[in-house]
Amino acid sequence: MDREQAPAGVRQTTSASELVANREPHGDVLRMLVIGAIATAVGIAIALAIDWFPIQASRESEKVDTLWDVLLIASVPVFVLVEVVVLYSVIRFRMRPGEELKDGPPVHGNTKLEIVWTAIPAILLVGLCTYAYVVLTDAEKARANTMNVRVEGQQFTWTFFYRTPDGKEVASPQLYVPVGQPVKFTIQSRDVIHDFFVPAFRLKIDAVPGIDTSIRIRPKRTGSYPVLCAELCGLGHSTMRQTAHVVDRATFDAWLGRLGKPAASAGGGGTAAPDAKTIFTDTAGCGGCHTLAEAGTNGTTGPDLDKVLKGKDASFIRQSIVKPNAQIAPGFQPGIMPQNFGQTLQPDQLDALVDYLSKVAAK
Ligand code: CUA
Fold first, then answer.
1. Ligand 1: which residue has its CA nearest to atom 1?
2. What would the CATH number be for the domain defined by 147-259?
3. Are 121 and 158 in contact, with CB atoms under 8 Å apart?
4. Which of 98, 139, 260, 291 would staple 304 via disulfide (CB 3.0–4.6 Å)?
């Protein structure tokens, strides 16, 4: 950088490099590099050691997690570089006693430096965006032998629709998918915007009224994982939680078979009566919102069933399940409890649940 010949009385302009030169530049730059390298190494080690995500239950989750790690490795040095320069300068070039009236030397730009600090982040960003795009495209690729599941969001529950082998559409309050099976979810909403989120699948997409959105997944690990709503959708938003069950093929086929079977024929075949407590705690998920000592649940979003069911008869209990807005317990708002248990529960499940709660109420 050239120093301009300044007219008399006008302060001379000092370039950034000269400013650094006046302060033993190599010493400062070297010190910042060493501090930066150590902080980067420590930062990346910490970033990679943190357990950011739940277990990987889908094949997509492996690639998403690798992308996340690469983003961390690329971001830490940038963050460290900026912080080291700022903090080092604050300490090293701070105002010292006797310098109160000094303004410091005026500095003008350094074109070479500006080109470098624009080009490097630009290249970095384009590279990372390209990588993220490749991961996304791979996740969204249509695959052979894909199973379709229609997901419907409504205040405040998800309902999952499956096609039985004979082409009938059946509804379930819980999500079941066979391990290893490519699945395409088509997401719809019956009222407001919700967001279908299964963290263990690294899957998340809005449910928008009037629009079908879709997402694909390949479940790779059997187990049960939370299904959430990730869009503030009303008073019961936090209760919009269900379970995704990744099961082996035989378990799935048996489950789908039971789901598709009309209640009348199911009874005749000697099928075991549905376990009412399991329906309460798991299938319908009542316990997530309701306290019931008999079932060991302690939800507080809905009325405490140990109190409000005392002395109630079966018809009241049935109505409270299938038409929850008909009578609202004092202190609670209508519309928080899903309105569709009459559709998502099988008739024999509903009967078992009503019977179970009637017995608890009569105690
Ligand atoms: Cu649905 Cu939040």
1. 194
2. 2.60.40.420
3. no
4. 291
